[in-house]
From TrEMBL:
GO terms for cellular component: ERCC4-ERCC1 complex; nucleotide-excision repair factor 1 complex. One of its GO terms (molecular function) is single-stranded DNA binding. InterPro entries: ERCC1/RAD10/SWI10, RuvA_2-like. It comes from the Eukaryota. One of its GO terms (biological process) is mitotic recombination. This is HHH_2 domain-containing protein. It holds the Pfam family HHH_5.
């Protein structure tokens, strides 16, 4: 079993890395550009695409994941 990261950037990489096509570099860029997970989740696809390496497909995947209801 893979060991989970204990710091926020590492945890963010672990979580975002579960989305198909999102790399560790993408996760680091998102963290640097948005600062908080809340800001990232609230961003539009167009805003996400402003991160280098995040094109329309990755941004759409992230937006879809962020819009899911995980409470069910």
């Amino acid at each position: 079993m893979e060991r989970s990261a204990e710091d926020w950037p590492g945890q963010l990489r672990d979580v975002l890395g579960c989305v198909r096509g999102v790399s560790r570099t993408d996760a680091a860029c998102l963290a640097a550009n948005f600062g908080t997970f809340e800001a990232m989740v609230g961003a539009s696809s167009a805003e996400l695409e402003r991160c280098p390496g995040l094109g329309p497909k990755k941004a759409a995947r992230l937006t879809a994941v962020f819009g899911q209801n995980f409470a069910d």
